[in-house]
Amino acid sequence: MPVSALDNMVSVGLFDENKLKEIEVIASEFSYSYIKTALNFGFLTRKKYVAFLEQEGFELVAVREEEMDEQYIEKCELIELNSILYAPLRKMPDGALLVAAADPQDEKLKTLLTLRFNMPIRFVAASDLDITWLVHIKRGEYYVKEAVFSLMRKDPEQSGLITFTDPQLIFIFGSIGIMVILLFISFLKVAMVLNVVFSVAFFGTILFKLYLSLNGSKAEMKELVNKAETKALEEDTLPVYTILLPVYKEDKLIRKLIWNLRSLDYPRGKLDVKLLIEEDDDKTLNAVRNLDFPANFETIVVPFHMPKTKPKACNYGLHFCRGEYLAIYDAEDVPDSDQLKKCVVLFRKLPPEFVVLQGALNYFNKNENMLTRMFTLEYTYWFDYMLPGLMSLDIPIPLGGTSNHFKFNKLMELGGWDPFNVTEDADLGVRVFEKGFKVGIVNSTTLEEANNEPFNWIRQRSRWIKGYMQTTLVHMRNPARLIRRIGWRGFLGFNFFIAGTSITFLLYPILLSFLLVYAIVKLTFVASLFPDWVLYIATFNLVAGNTMMIYVNMLSVFKRRYYELILFGALNPLYWIMHSIAAYKGLWQLIYKPFYWEKTNHGLTKVSSSGNAAVTPLETVQ
C-alpha cells in the first residue's frame, strides 16, 4: 500500500525505483520528507508535482489565505514544519484537525500528528512554497530574533548596533573643537599643517596598497589546489556542502542563478542549497514557483525584522543548514565548476586554524563600457594582488561579499555575521583574525556582473564604503584591546587598509580642489596656504599617489592577461572622483541611517555570462 505521493508517482511512471531509493537516502540524511527531497534536489519539477496532485484528486488550497487557529501550529517546531512541509490550520466541526500538507498522501505524517494532537487528521494539499512561507512567518520569530541579536548578546563589543560610542563621539567632537580653536588662534599655520597631514595620510595609504600589491604579485599561493587533487577526491567521502543564496527582488535572475549552480561539480545529494527570500518578496517566490526545470535548492522565507540586510538573512539561514562547509554566492554569480571540491581539498590540507577560504571575484562583462573596465581592473588587483599581499604579511583580510567558504562550526563559533554592518564580509574577516583564526585564499574564480550604470554603481559603492567606516568604528572602540588581539602589524594593517580606504576617498577631492584652485585661480588667500614647501609636499603626495594607483591598475592585468585593459588604468584619477562621491554619500548615511541597505540592481548588462565567462585560471598564472 502506498504511504506517500512518491510511491504513487513511481506507479504512474514519474519515477523509477532507483530514483526513489536515491530520494530515500537523501531524505534520511537530511531528515526531510520524501516530497521535499524530490522537489528540493531536482528530482521533480513543481509543475509535474501539481499536475500529479490534481490527477490524484487533490486541488491545491491557497494556504496563505486560509483561516488559521495558531494554537495548533505553536505545538510544532519550525525545523520539523520546514523539513516535512505541513501546517496545522484549524479544528473542523467534525472534530478532525485540518492540516495543509505538500504530500497529502503521507501516512507516516498522519500517524505522527494523530498521536501528537490526539484527534483525527484531515489533509488538504498545498504548494510547498506556500507552506514554507506560512510556517516561517508563524514560527520563525525566535530564529529571526536570534539572527538579529545573537552576536550583540554574545559579544556586544563586536556588534555594530551602536554606530558611535560615547568615547568616540567625545574624541570626534573634541578633535573638531580643538581644531576650530586652533584655526581661530592661527589660521594660516594650522591650515598648512592640516594640509600637510592630510596629503601625507593620503600618500601613506596608497603607498601601503602599492606595497601590498607588489608583495601579492610575488607571493606564492601556498593554498594552490590543482586539478589532479580535485579529480582524486572520492565522492563518497565528500561532506555535505551548504550554499547560501540571499536574494531580494531578483525574480529576473532566478533562472540564470539556478542554471549557474547546476554547473557545479558536486554530488547532488551532498549539496544543501538555501535560497533566502524575504517575507515581502512575492516576486522572487513566484519566479521559483514558475520554474519549469528541476532545481537543486531549498527555499527559506525570512520573516520581517529590522534591519533588512543581507547578513540578517544569512544568519537566519544558518539555523537550517546541514553542511560541514558553507559558501555564500550572490544571485548573478558564476563560480568555477570545481570551486567546492577545491575548497574541500584545501581545508583538508591546511592547518585547523584556517576557518574560511576566499575565492577570487571577477567580471564576465568586463569590456561592456568604461565603468565595467575600471571595475574589472579594481577587482583584479584587489583579489589577485592585495588579498594575497595581506595574507603574506599576516594582516586581517576583509572578505569579499561572495565566494566565502567557511567551516560551518567555526562560523557559528564566531557568531555568524553582524546584521547591523552593511559590509558584513569585511567585518567578519577582521573578527576571524581577532579570534586567532586564519583566512586562506583559494585559486578559484567566481564571475559576477560588473555594475555598468554610474548611479547604480554609486549606490553599491556608498554602501561598501559606509560598511568600511562601520567596521573601523566597531573595531577601534578600544584600540589597546585590538592591538593585544592582533598585534601591532595587524593593527597598522587594519588601519591603513580598512580605515585608510575610506579616509583616502574622503580626502581626495579636498586635496585635488585646493591644488586646482591654487594652480588655476591664483587667489592670494589660497596661495597663502601653499608656501613653497607645503606646495611641494602636497603636489608630490597627490601626483605620486595617483601615479602609484595607476601603476597598480596597470599591474593588475598581467595575472589574468587582460592586456586590452592596461591603458584604462590611466583613468583611475577620474574613477576615484566617483569613489569620493560615494564616500560622502556613505558618510551621510552612516550618520543618518547607518543600517540602511542600499539595494544594487542586477541584470542590467546585455552581456551573457555563459558566452563571456572565459577567464584565465589562477593556477596557470602563479
Number of strands: 11
Q: Give the rounded overall mean pLDDT.
A: 87
Q: Could you give the distance between the termini?
A: 61 Å
Counting helices, strands and paired strands, the structural category is alpha/beta
Which tags fit this structure?
11 strands; alpha/beta; 11% strand; 25 helices; 622 residues; elongated; 3-stranded mixed β-sheet; 8-stranded mixed β-sheet; 54% helix
Overall description:
With 622 residues, the protein is α/β, with parallel strands linked by helices. The protein folds into 2 domains: 5-139, no CATH class; 182-226 and 306-327 and 350-622, no CATH class. Helices cover 54% and strands 11% of the residues. Helix 10 (166-185) packs across helix 11 and helix 20 crosses helix 25 (572-592). The longest helix has 42 residues, at 479-520. It starts with a helix and ends in a 30-residue tail after the last helix.
Task: Record the SSE blueprint.
Blueprint lengths: L4 H7 L5 H14 L3 H7 L5 H10 L14 H4 L4 H7 L1 E6 L5 E5 L5 H11 L3 E5 L2 H12 L1 H14 L11 H20 L1 H32 L8 H5 L9 E7 L6 H9 L8 E8 L3 H8 L8 E5 L7 H9 L6 E4 L5 E2 L3 H11 L4 E10 L6 H23 L11 E4 H6 L10 H11 L3 E11 L5 H22 L3 H42 L3 H5 L3 H24 L1 H4 L11 H21 L30
Parallel strand pairs: 2-3, 4-5, 4-7, 5-6, 9-11
Antiparallel strand pairs: 1-2, 7-10, 8-11, 9-10
Helix pairs in contact: 2-3, 9-15, 10-11, 11-17, 11-21, 11-23, 17-23, 19-20, 20-21, 20-25, 21-23, 21-25
